[in-house]
Amino acid sequence: MGAERSSHVVYKNLTNGRLFCQSCSMAVGEPEDVRDLKNAPTNYHIHSNGNYKRHPEENYDSSASSASVSQLDQNGTVRRRAPLTYLDEPPARGLTGITNIGNSCYFNSAIQVLSNSRPLSAFLRSQANFWIFADKRLCWQLSSHFQQLWSRHPNPYIDVSMLLSTFKSDNRFFNNLRQHDAHELFRCLLTQLDEELSEPMFDYEENLRAKKPKTSPQNDTSILGSTVGSRSVIKDIFEGRIESTELSLSMTMNDINEPKLEKTEKEDPGVTTEVSKFTRMVNSFTDTFFSTSIDLIGCLEEYFKPALLFGDNAYRCEKCKSPQKGTKYCQISSLPEVLCIHLKRFKMDAAGFKQKVSTHTLFPVYGLNLAPYALPECTKNGAKYELSGMVIHSGNQAESGHYTACCRNLDDGNWYTFDDKDVMKIDPIDLLSREAYFLLYQRIPNEKQRLGGEFSLLTKMEKNWNQSEENFTHYICREYLERIRSFSNPGPIPNTSFLCAHGKISPRKSNNIEAIVTKIPGSAWRLLQAEFGGGPELESLDFCEPCEKELKALCKSKEMELRQFAFEELDFFEQWRADGRNPTQLCVVPRVWHEKWMSYVTRLDEVSPGPINNKELYDENQDPLPCCPPRGKTVSQKSFEMFVELYGGGPTVRCMADWDTGYAMYMERLYEHAMSMDLKKTELYVPSPNGDSYLY
User: Fold this and answer.
1) CA distance linking residue 42 with residue 64, whole number of Å
2) Contact, 138 vs 39, CB < 8 A?
3) Any idea which architecture 451-543 has in CATH?
4) Residue 142, class by beta-carbon neighbours within 10 Å (0-12 exposed, 13-18 middle, 19+ buried)?
5) For domain 97-240+260-304+335-444, which architecture applies?
6) What is the mean pLDDT of residues 164-187?
7) b or e along 440-471 (b: 16 or more beta carbons within 10 Å of the residue's beta carbon)?
8) For 433, how many CA atoms within 13 A lie in the half-sphere containing its CB?
9) How far, in Å, CA of 229 to CA of 225, rounded?
10) Hey, which end of the chain has fewer CB within 10 Å, N or C?
């Protein structure tokens, strides 16, 4: 500002407490005399970058009912005050930036959209779930950073270098300082979270839900049950399914037309008038400023329209084994809680170089309806979505540019842009002018669940909470109660996840049972069970002695298997080192299989790794790939034979002479570790009904 004194009008955002100068068009700091005004609505200090920090020494006057908008001169002198009513509530959380530690904008933007994805954010921030993350490095750090991002006393920005380092250590492709693709990062991050949070599903769970627990375990080969799949909160949030059907069809070549995208103006009758007005305003805006654009709805219609099968893609009849002209239909058979739509922003040109696709894409902010593309049975809980966040790529080059995120805040419902450390509020209509790279949509509850007041399920439950403690008679998963608030439909009550085949507490879960379950009133249980199903009903927590005995025997078997592997490797290593360290004496197993096996023999809740599949280590000519590392793991011949005997599979793959196996370094570390401790004192702990542990 110049030397001349001037008056600037400053506006205060009553939701987040920020100050904005109309003349300078920027956020400004808050002068002392304004902050100390008697009627100041909050006790939050506004930083020059627009963020806020609470001052605990200041008393928050919740009885105040008005504030002042002040006109200030360049020295901060108050020139005019005007009374202004406001809502007595603290600023919205989740408005914390993330430091860019060097080409990390791709990571920061993905973290911000995940942080503002209600189901995942609620799960990772819930203190009831902390015990789950204790031995899961990525989940634990992500949970810790989400807590910082959503703190009531936030810093302007946080540092996620440790989280990024943890992720890179498990994903070598990202282990450098280059700019990476945000969507590839997003997919890898969810995959790793899914692996860490995955739990086995057992064959007896369906019987428990049907109230048919096992009663004669002595006739079973394994009372612990066999696995029939896995579950994880990542699958529950992000997983959907598409079914395809191929039908034979007689047609002429004249029936085949090149598909074209056409822009249509259709108003969904199920969308409210307010949303329809917003849509018309958006259409007017985009028609004015974007002459060449495509419509996301048109892309979905094109994707799900019947595809003609002919030529090389012809339908092959199962009976006559001959190619036939046909049609392929695709429909959604399971809708995800959070829908991720990836827009193709990069392509390879004729010369093999990666290019940026800057075509503008129109997408709905509210009321994305997937019902036309889904099977009727999967839409009963609602098939409409609203945008919750998106990642934007700015720049003309595919190998450079900058990533930012736009997210709808979970506290105040406003939209904000997250540009590393900088956070700024934006208007929803501004979203349409951004080059969206991928979009996250949150499923909207159907009309029955959205009703408020006395018809609200949550309200009914909370009324039941105001009862004496003696009415709290039923046990339920703590995580499920959080899902009721954060999911559009929480699904059936998953009490089978911590029970054994006999309907009692599984020994796999007994050590953490107090963190897993909580008590609720019987009336609340009946309300939930009638609305969502599931179960079974539990009024007491009983530990299962037969399952505990079998688990102890299984742990003993795992311990012996691990010791045998260690002794075999150490014996072989001494001879191998004396013979000149010839790589061809080593065998190879898939690295992924070896990691699953290590988890299985060292953890209670892991399942068998299954047969070895070394076929993935061969090329199409059945020649071994030079894949060790990173795809293969070297072991001795005796250890490989032990694995095949216990788990089956194959075939045998030996190391090549020119492979850098890393086996010597690995075995030297194992050898030093073995020399420093007595392997016979290896400890395995098994939980007992009284909370103690058995030591082997």
Assistant:
1) 10
2) no
3) 2-Layer Sandwich (3.30)
4) buried
5) Alpha-Beta Complex (3.90)
6) 86
7) bbbbbbbeebeeeeeeebeeebeebeeeeeeb
8) 10
9) 12
10) N
Residue 34 CB coordination number (10 Å): 19
Residue with tokens 């259409």: 283
Residues of the chain with CATH 3.30.2230.10: 451-543
Q: How far apart are CA 198 and CA 229, in angstroms?
A: 10
Q: Tell me the two tokens of residue 424.
A: 């700024």
Q: The tokens of 346 are what?
A: 């990069």
Task: Return the CATH number of 546-695, one of 3.30.2230, 3.40.50, 3.30.70, 2.60.40.
Answer: 3.30.2230
d(CA 505, CA 639): 36
Place of tokens 């696995």: 227
- How does pLDDT run across 353-392, given as a tens digit for each residue? 777 787 888 899 988 999 999 999 888 888 999 999 999 9
Q: Which residues sit opposite 53 in a β-bridge? A: 45
pTM (two decimals): 0.69
Question: Which part of the chain has CATH 3.90.70.10?
Answer: 97-240+260-304+335-444
Distance CA 16, CA 46 (A): 9
Q: Is 665 exposed, middle or buried (0-12, 13-18, 19+ CB in 10 A)?
A: exposed
Q: pLDDT by residue (tens digit) across 321-359?
A: 777 778 888 899 999 999 999 888 877 776 777 777 878
